Amino acid sequence: MKAIWLGILSSLFFAVTFVLNRSMEMDGGSFLWSASLRYFFMVPFLVAIVAKRKGLREMTEAMAASPGPFFLWSFVAFVLFYAPLTFSAAYSPGWLLAGTWQLTIVAGVLLAPLFFVRTQMTTGQQFVRQRIPIASLFITLIIFAGVVLIQIPNASSVDRRTLLLGILPIIVAAFAYPLGNRKMMDLLQGKLDTFQRVLSMTLMTIPVWIGFAVYALLTVGPPSIGQVAQSLIVAISSGVIATTLFFMATDLVKNDQGKLSAVEATQSTELIFAMFGEMLILHIALPGPLSLIGIGVIIIGMGLHSYQTAIAGKKKFKLANEQQT
Fold first, then answer.
1. Please, which residues have CB within 8 angstroms of residue 127's CB and are 6 or more apart in sequence?
2. What SS3 state is found at 118?
3. Are 37 and 227 in contact (CB under 8 A)?
């Protein structure tokens, strides 16, 4: 359950992204600056943390050992995740984006067959392909139904182009984030701690964010003071605190696809935090009845995931005790 609570806490800080990205878009800020500034601001905080923990040398050695895969999966986990997220903020309110983002839970379950687990056999160590956990898939589909419900009122009130630009990038981000995160865990095999992993992935993608910033400077000019300030808050809240908490949670259960899916399901609470945050900060109205039903369905799905994780943990503990006796 520790991993579940870490996941929920991370979603509280992640929700800041949806609220402030929407705020910056409403103020006329470019998504290019919103995306790149977050990662620029993350670097000094993470460097200070890793340096204090005396982990910089170990981190750079891991990066140098396999730079190609390191860059690829960092790009997938960070660039293909955050750039679409900030782009979509121009077309949908933050709470709706946070709701659609819950498709990452579906993605997390469906990605299981792309990964292997080491198993000790009599003939030696073998790699066994992970299976889609059926119980997790069923509960995930409940959450997906909730996502569909919250989108129905929006679909009837906006044109198709706006709807697609608000949804399709989120779908890309929803698959990219768990894929990149899990591939990095596979690549590193526990060689780096959470802070080292977040910093190394950030540094690997800095050239991409510099490209974003240069293009933004040439096309829309420099960011406003307000956008810089809000990006700094997003960097600390979502980029440093939330990402670190979430990676800590996934590291705790990285060898169990069912539990890993449950941790990823905790991100559904971002929807609630983002909705209330926008109501307080941006003064948006309470979503309609159908959207509220959808939110309720998502919460129920997340609760079922947590319950399933607790039951699975008890069964595993019981089995381990029986084997010892």
1. 116, 117, 118, 119
2. strand
3. yes
DSSP annotation string for 157-208: HS-HHHHHHHHHHHHHHHHHHHHHHHHHHHHHTTSS-HHHHHHHHHHHHHHH
Residues 282, 235: Cα–Cα separation, whole Å: 20
Do 110 and 231 touch, CB atoms closer than 8 A?
no
The contacts of residue 199 (CB under 8 Å, 6+ apart) are 43, 46, 47, 49, 50, 59
Look up residue 25 and give its two tokens. Answer: 């878009």
Q: How far apart are CA 49 and CA 244, in angstroms?
A: 11
CA 232 to each of CA 37, 88, 93, 270: distance values in angstroms, whole numbers, following the listed order? 7, 20, 21, 20
Return d(Cα 12, Cα 5) in angstroms, integer: 11
Nearest to 95 by CA among 229, 286, 259, 306: 286
The set of residues, in sequence order, having a beta carbon less than 8 Å from that of 70 and lying 6+ positions away, is: 62, 63, 184, 187, 200, 201, 204
Q: What does 235-301 look like in DSSP terms, one character per residue?
A: IIIIIIIIHHHHHHHHHHTTT-HHHHHHHHHGGGHHHHHHHHHHHHHT-PPPPPHHHHHHHHHHHHH
Q: Taking the domains of the chain in order of start, what are their residue ranges?
A: 2-324
Residue type, 228: V
In whole angstroms, give the CA distance from residue 14 to residue 44: 19
81-131, pLDDT tens digit by residue?
999 989 988 887 777 777 777 777 777 777 777 766 655 555 555 566 667
Indicate the DSSP class of residue 112: G
| Cα–Cα distance measured from residue 153 to residue 163, given in angstroms and rounded to the nearest whole number | 11
128 vs 119: CA distance, rounded Å:
7
- pLDDT digit string, tens, across residues 143-172: 778 878 877 876 666 677 777 888 889 889
Total length of the chain: 325
List, in order, residues 6 or more apart from 24 with CB less than 8 Å away: 34, 89, 226, 227, 230, 231
Task: Report how far residue 235's alpha carbon sits from residue 42's, in angstroms, rounded to the nearest whole number.
Answer: 5
DSSP secondary-structure letter at 131?
-
